[in-house]
């Protein structure tokens, strides 16, 4: 019988590295030469560095003077300049002078008004308006209102209303102008318009007693005026009707108007 043995892989043998070869000993002459070369190089270096003929110097060989440090500080760090105050523009100065002239004229007008010199006061208020800049709305509004009170004293009610209206266009919440315009309307028997101005005053100032008293006084006058105007209108209509009905032998007296107390409307009945 034949026995077959299993195959076994051969292990790879690692060869050890060969031993280092012995270095030959250096001679004393070589060591001496090397030392002499190093010494010579070290001796030559300071001579080369100390040679002034090349004209160069390093930062370590010279110091920086105090003046140079200050120059560097001045060049590198600048103190911030304080901004100069802007001088007032010439236009602003001119406008300010115009306002001053207007106020002076207005004050002169007030003094004349206090003395009862209304015509002269009007001239001063007009001068103030001519001097006051267009954008000085409050000042111009006061001057128009002051002109209105002068015109009220002079009995020029229509002109007073116009001046008050100009004042209110510049300042819609100007209570004095509303009161003065209401007074001028009352003088002209424009009771409805006067009541409207007084109601506007109460909207702006609910505690204004003058406006409240004026409304109580004006409302009956306004009602009486409405009735009077109604009667005048009816009379005119009668005249027109008689001119037409007369051709047929009739007149408006043949027609009777009866007012309904509940609705306030009228019914017409014919009578012979």
UniProtKB/TrEMBL annotation:
<feature type="region of interest" description="Disordered">
    <location>
        <begin position="1"/>
        <end position="112"/>
    </location>
</feature>
<keyword id="KW-0677">Repeat</keyword>
<feature type="compositionally biased region" description="Basic and acidic residues">
    <location>
        <begin position="74"/>
        <end position="107"/>
    </location>
</feature>
<dbReference type="InterPro" id="IPR019734">
    <property type="entry name" value="TPR_rpt"/>
</dbReference>
<dbReference type="InterPro" id="IPR011990">
    <property type="entry name" value="TPR-like_helical_dom_sf"/>
</dbReference>
<feature type="repeat" description="TPR">
    <location>
        <begin position="141"/>
        <end position="174"/>
    </location>
</feature>
<feature type="repeat" description="TPR">
    <location>
        <begin position="175"/>
        <end position="208"/>
    </location>
</feature>
<dbReference type="Pfam" id="PF07719">
    <property type="entry name" value="TPR_2"/>
</dbReference>
<keyword id="KW-0802">TPR repeat</keyword>
<feature type="repeat" description="TPR">
    <location>
        <begin position="102"/>
        <end position="135"/>
    </location>
</feature>
<dbReference type="InterPro" id="IPR013105">
    <property type="entry name" value="TPR_2"/>
</dbReference>
<dbReference type="InterPro" id="IPR052769">
    <property type="entry name" value="TPR_domain_protein"/>
</dbReference>
<feature type="compositionally biased region" description="Low complexity">
    <location>
        <begin position="24"/>
        <end position="48"/>
    </location>
</feature>
<protein>
    <recommendedName>
        <fullName>Tetratricopeptide repeat protein 1</fullName>
    </recommendedName>
</protein>
<feature type="compositionally biased region" description="Acidic residues">
    <location>
        <begin position="1"/>
        <end position="13"/>
    </location>
</feature>
<dbReference type="Pfam" id="PF00515">
    <property type="entry name" value="TPR_1"/>
</dbReference>
